[in-house]
Predict the structure of CRISPR-associated endonuclease/helicase Cas3.
Amino acid sequence: MALHLWDVYLSENQRVRIAEGMRLAGEPERARAVVGLCAGLHDIGKLSGFQFCSWHGSQYLSAELGGDRMKMSVERFGHDVAGLQSAKEVLAGLGFAADEDLRVAERLAEVIGGHHGRFHRVEDGIAPAFLGGAAWARQRVAHAAVVHESLGAPETPGVFKASAAVLVTGVVILADWLVSQEGYLRERQRGLEPVLADHFKRSQQDAPRLLAEAGLARVELQRKGFAEAYGIRGEPNPLQRSVMDELREAVGEGRRGGIFLVTAAPGDGKSETALEAERVLSEAFGTQGYAFMLPTMATSDQMHGRVAKALLRQSGEDAGLTLVHSMAWLNSAYADEDLDAQSVLTCDGNEVGEGSRRAEADMRPQRWLRGPKRPLLAQFAVGTIDQALMAVLPVRHNALRLLALSGKTFIVDEAHAYDPYMQVLLGRLLNWLGAYGVPVVLLSATLPASVSDRLIKEYLQGAGHKTRALSRRAFPAPYPGWLYVDGESGRATQISPARQQEQAHARSMKLGIVVEPVTHGSSDARARLAVIERLLKPVSEGEGGTALVVCNTVGDAQDTYLRLRERFDKRSHEQGGSVQLLHARFPGDVREARTREVIEGLGRTGPRPLRRIVVATQVVEQSLDLDADIVISDLAPLSLLLQRAGRCWRHENHWTRHGYPDGRGRPAWASGPRLVVLDPIADGGKTPQQWGEVYSEHLLVTTSRTLAGIKGGFISIPGDVQGLVEAVHGDNEDFDWNNPGSSEAKAWTAHQGKEMAERSMAGLLAVPRARSVSALHDLHDLPGEEDEWEVSTRLGADSVRLLCAYVQEDGQVTLDLEGEQLLPEAGSDGKMTVSSVREVMRRTIPVRADWLKEADPDSIAPPKSWMEHPMLADLRVLRQPVQGGSARAVKVGGRTLRLDKDCGLLRR
């Protein structure tokens, strides 16, 4: 299987990098044979005390081998560690014993020992008795000799660099999982070939089928023209045209990848620009497919749909396309039958007898087939950036993630949306991708120059450029436009001035900025809700139109929605009211449906509603393709305000050329795009207490001051954007040295301290840079940090998933308020059906774990029959009493929680 993966699954780029890492450039067949050798020897550690895990198997051992049973069974170790310890001796028997081969043999041993996703220290060792005596050693050499001979007796490579060994480990893990599916193993056991050569031949014949059934076969797209490929009317804009016409020349004869940064205002078609760039970059650098990473599940869900349509239009219906985030399997794109996977039998830790491993072993099939590890391996993957960042955290199977990403073009949308902690992790990932020559595309509307400069330099450092030389360079990006930096030469190329001017002119817009000083909790004319109500009267009482109200907290969004619903349309969202609510505290199925409704109502193609007011949180500020006649927003850091403003008159140019949906133009009151900022700081006010630590006080104060300084009440888009972003988010020393005790100085100090702490924490937690790894255990060098739940790609409060259930008056607990769906229970075999698990999980809501810390653990525990399920066992269940057909709030600590059908989860 590993040989087949080399032939058809690995991209040309990956094969070249592995061969170069073995100093076998130009000799791919030799490199292929070494990969096969690692795969063929991956379970050599099972020739050890592992054999005595099963009495039925071990009773047929010869007297000489079986005589060591007692001493070999005293202590148990993983067979992966046993393989690491015994591999050097085995390889010596194959002729890998010369002094110059020693380091290579040690690296091969590290790969063998890492095939279950975690690299171990050679010096940690195991009890020698576990490996057995001389007879066992001879048996290991005999097994290895047969594998070696079957591969044509490959010679040791001159070197084996760590970065290449990580990719080889990923190949071995994937090959192991593919051939270890229970159904396939039983099929082979029913007809074992008596001659080993025939067995090997049959295995080679089966490999293509197994790869295809896993959805990992490669598909060659039939590339279409721009409009046909993306279903867009009209011609590409100047930015997109420049990529199609100019990027290929900028890439030139590059051989080691490059990093491509696109900067443009929201709504400028950056996603399609990225996909056009991917065409050029993949062809130039030998990658297959792409990984499109976004900041949130909601934006990933939407982009998955757009990519799926683009692939279908280009004969990609058979291409592997996955949605990659922790709740992806709940998305309606996946059917229940897609999730009902057969077991993968890899003996992963089972022989050690550690109870803590059972949950992980039980989850392996789901994780491989539809969970957070296997989907990245598909030719095309769309998902949250977190799934990619796991590749540079010290977690199990990070090598598999690096394998998955290194064969594709890597696209990061909304590159500005990540905090300093995540930016460091992203930089570390770009460093590894630079070492692998992977083409990278970064997209952003509001990325500070200091951040883009750091990311580009991380990539180039991974590609081999010296830190000192890079420190003397800067990589300023044009706005709007693009910057391409070649990985090998470091040469920087920009969009041509003519095309940049065309793009700026084509998307030129005067955005009206209105700052409304507001107060929270008061009842006068400046009260926040009263101001919003006044601003929206033209929408609700006049000729209609569309408005987007963006709130900083879910609680503010719920209160705002209730006020506007009461004032303008007493019908609920579910009843088709003109006021809609969208936030992250709805059950998953409700949130998915509401997101779809909002996109349909405010999307490019329509139909446009006569009047619509959408009240939402930050979930709408990234990658959701919305167009409103006016945007009203709580004060937020300036880059985010510009993102929210990007939902105002977003499709005006397109509609001007091609006509408004249903012929319904803008209402007369909407004379131009307008962003209204509700500013509680203006006129000497303070940030509301309920905002907590949503945003940095320093950024809010600086944004408020910057908005107050805008002359004429207008921002020129795109001309003023980068300057405003730098004024608030750039590397400015905005400290008042003459008044260090002022509130603004204290806010600046707190902001700088927090950012420094986040960067330091990420730097300590992330794996080393690609060229700094000496031993592979450096990738798992934090004790205990073994799997995803032990580390985080984001800083902040821990979260749990909450299921809001209903206790009916007869005592039955149901999933629905009406009492028609009982909480599902495990069957007589102790298992839950996939459809039952989906039904439960789709109704869960992510909440902060500290909300429930004072709750009685038994009161929020899941049913006992769920405790053996790897997902359901971790849920918290809010059991809401039903009285008179209504659900009552449940007191948890000093607050109450209740799921409202229209407003989502209420916390009062």
